[in-house]
Amino acid sequence: MFKNLEMFQASYAMARHSGARQAVTAANMANADTPGYRARTLGSFAESYSADMDSGLRTTRAQHLTSSALTGTSSVQISDAEAAPNGNSVSLEQEMVNSVEIQREHNRALAIYKHSLDVLRLSIGRK
After folding, report:
1. What is the DSSP code string of 71-92?
2. Which domain of life is it from (predicted)?
3. What Rg value do the Cα atoms of the chain yield, rounded?
4. CB proximity list for 37: less than 8 A, separation 6 or greater
5. Which of 26, 41, 63, 72 would bridge 16 by S-S if both were Cys, CB 3.0 to 4.6 A apart?
6. 123, exposed or middle or buried, with CB in 10 Å at 0-12, 13-18, 19+?
7. Residue range 87-98: average pLDDT?
8. How far apart are alpha carbons 127 and 17 in whole angstroms?
9. Domain residues of the chain, as ranges?
10. Global pTM?
């Protein structure tokens, strides 16, 4: 029932996207000392969502082709950060900042979902 409402779909996609971003950030941090490792990035949800809206594609049924923003499968890009002498381009400070930003994005998605659920409950007369 909740998957048919666009607000729930958007908050689900936002939470899923932040989970994917956190996985990329965790992989970067895990490989901070690996020689030759290049840091990877995954754009913010707003960037991938706006790119999806510009394409004009929308899904209204489960049988339709899905877009990258709604499925959370945005492409991972290699960061263009300056590499250390061993070829590694991971900056732990930047990854920590990214991690906090991702946590905020995930908390925002959960707040949107909770608020939407509260509005839905109020509209059907439940507290």
Report:
1. HT-PPPEE--PPPPTTS----H
2. Bacteria
3. 18
4. 31, 87, 88, 89, 90
5. 72
6. exposed
7. 91
8. 30
9. 2-123
10. 0.71
Map tokens 């381009």 to a residue. Answer: 89
Residue type, 84: A
Burial, 3: exposed, middle or buried (Cβ in 10 Å; 0-12, 13-18, 19+)? exposed
Residues 57 and 48: their CA atoms lie apart, in Å, by 13
> Token pair of 52, please?
């999806």
Contact of 88 with 34, CB cutoff 8 Å? yes
Look-up: residue for tokens 């509005």?
119
The amino acid occupying position 98 is N
